[in-house]
Amino acid sequence: DQFLESGGGSVQDGESLRLSCVTSDTFYLYAAGWFRQAPGKEREFVAAIDRTGYSTKYADSVKGRFTVSRDASQKTVYLQMDSLKPEDTAVYYCNRGLYSRGEYYPGDVWGRGTQVTVSS
C-alpha cells in the first residue's frame, strides 16, 4: 500500500487548509490516522478515523479545530484544519492502522508527508 498526501501550504494564523491522502483499493478494510512531525520533535498523533467512518479520535491540541473524514469510494482520507495556529506547523503524514476501543494503532507504512506552515 502507498499513501499520497497533498494539500499542505503556507497560511496565516487563523486560516484553514484541507489535507488529502489517497490510498489503495484495500483501504476500506482499515482505520486511518493523521500524524505530524515538527522540526526537532517526535512524530505525534493528530487524528484517526475507524474503517466505517463513524468513530473518530483527536489529539487534545487539535480537538474542535480539525476534522478527519474518509471517502471509501475515492480511497481518500481528509483532514480539515481550521483556526490554524503557528504551533500546527509540521509535516503531516497519513497512515493506515487499527482502531479499537477508542485507540488508534498505526501501521508501519507511511507516505512522504505534506508540509503545513502557519505564520503569525
Task: Describe the structure using short key phrases.
single chain; mainly beta; seven-stranded mixed beta sheet; four-stranded antiparallel beta sheet
Could you explain how this protein is built, in words?
This protein is mainly beta. It has strands at 4-6, 9-12, 17-22, 31-37, 44-49, 56-58, 66-71, 76-81, 90-100, 103-110, 114-119. The strands form two sheets. Strands 2, 4, 5, 6, 9, 10 and 11 form a seven-stranded mixed β-sheet that branches. Strands 1-3-8-7 form a four-stranded antiparallel β-sheet, with no helix packed on it. A hairpin with a 6-residue loop joins strand 4 and strand 5. The radius of gyration is 13 Å and the shape is globular.
Rg calc: 13 Å
**What kind of sheet is the major sheet?**
7 strands, mixed
Protein structure class: mainly beta
Terminus-to-terminus distance: 37 Å
Oligomer: single chain
Total helix count?
0
Order of helices and strands: EEEEEEEEEEE
How big a fraction of the residues is strand?
Answer: over 45%
Summarize the structure.
The protein has 120 residues and is mostly beta strands.
Topology:
Layout lengths: L3 E3 L2 E4 L4 E6 L8 E7 L6 E6 L6 E3 L7 E6 L4 E6 L8 E11 L2 E8 L3 E6 L1
